[in-house]
Design goal:
4 helices; 140 residues; alpha+beta; globular; 31% helix; two-stranded antiparallel sheet
């Protein structure tokens, strides 16, 4: 069975294991953000939970937000959809098909279910409490 480091290597992505964790071993969001801020070369950072399918909307939204407020944090929650068949991403209308399924049967998660963060370099450096990834509270 392949681990995250193996898959990252196959995709040409960097696997970063040097993050602080809570007593149960869950990574701390604050540590992930600080580490990304030190390592990333781009001007914006994006944290996205696994298993999220993105459409082109997310890629243009940070630019539109930056036009209004350059140093802004964008967060979002997911809409759960039961996908029962393979998505053919080679079809030109795959995004519209996904949107249709989302609008017809998707379940928007509550506001505390934040599944992505997009922010400019330095915005969150040493600003985030010790929240464990996937947990609704912070470590003391």
């Amino acid at each position: 069975m392949k681990g995250a480091a193996d898959v990252a290597g196959e995709l040409g992505a960097r696997y970063e294991s040097e993050v602080d964790r809570n007593s149960l071993g869950a990574p701390l969001l604050s540590s992930l953000f600080d580490r990304a801020d030190r390592l990333a070369q781009q001007d914006r950072r994006c944290f996205l939970n696994a298993g999220i399918l993105l459409t082109h909307d997310l890629f243009s939204a940070p630019d539109r937000l930056a036009e209004r407020q350059e140093r802004a944090l964008m967060v979002g929650r997911r809409c759960d959809v039961d996908i029962t068949q393979w998505l053919d991403l080679s079809k030109p209308d795959w995004r519209q098909s996904v949107r249709r399924v989302v609008h017809e049967s998707g379940k928007l998660r509550p506001s505390q279910w934040i599944d992505f963060f997009v922010f400019p370099r330095g915005l969150l450096r040493r600003q985030v409490l010790a929240f464990a990834v996937g947990r609704p509270g912070c470590n003391k």
